[in-house]
Amino acid sequence: MEEKRFSRQQYPLDILAEFGLTEEMIYDLPDFVHDAIERGGKSPLLPISVEQPFGVTRGYAKFSLVETEEGINVVFYPKLTKANLDTFSEEQKTALFAGKVIVADVDDSYITQEGVEDTQRIKAFVQLDKDTNGVIYAPTQPIGRNLNAVGNEYDLTGEDLQRFWDGELVTIREANDDGGDEPVTIGVDLSTDTGVIVVPGTAEQWENIVRLPMPRYSFGSDGCWVNHEGRLSYVPEDDFTKDIMDELERLAKQNGIVSQEPDNQGQDQRHQAYKDIMEDEQRQLAR
Questions:
Q1: Cα–Cα distance between 164 and 256 in angstroms, integer?
Q2: Which of 206, 275, 203, 210 is nearest to 237 (CA)?
Q3: pLDDT, mean of each 10-residue run, the chain (287 residues)
Q4: What is the model's pTM?
Q5: Cα atoms in the Cβ-side hemisphere of radius 13 Å centred on 80
């Protein structure tokens, strides 16, 4: 399984704050998002802002953490206007938009021994980040070697390995401590260092863990992240709108949470109870 490389205590909050992402906003992201970031993966597409001499520049970007000699740093992946898919066939484009990792020929830039930048055509695993419209790729050789290593560990067949090259997930049965067996799913995802993610569970559980989208409302300790057609906005608790409170009230009633306390205290109790419900539902999705 993919091991965690970072902890929440290591987040460079000062750097994130420079881009308008406050400590409250970061820590109010759901647990499954933190799990991805701590593994070295990317955050969801978040609203960022940068103070400029002429005003504030606003946009959307994902971020991930990297280790440097100076400590933990942040890499941002801004939303692009359009994905450049001109070099791919219609069949390849369809697979990429469907979220599959494909194998294709791409133009790769490199530096020659003479120090001159040149381009070569290489075969690579290719993935489309539909949130940022960015196309990312990695040469097939290192990913293939990692797949072979995982294949040896889990006794995968040659047919299983070929399925990775066709953009598929592979689910096998593995013995557990109780004498039975349980499903384990393996897939390629270029958002991690190795490019290969192993998840205990079915293919559906793999998708939920690796590509689980943000819910419509995600409540944290200090506010709520609202997902509007893939674009996230953060609303502090003091600024909750009627639609957020209506949803909070609806789910509170749905789960039998009724408070007889005065309005403000009752809202606080329902807010906390709803956060607990949301966290439990997200944990269930990832199992």
A1: 45
A2: 275
A3: 82 94 96 91 90 80 89 88 86 92 88 78 90 88 90 92 93 87 93 85 90 87 89 92 89 69 52 57 46
A4: 0.71
A5: 13
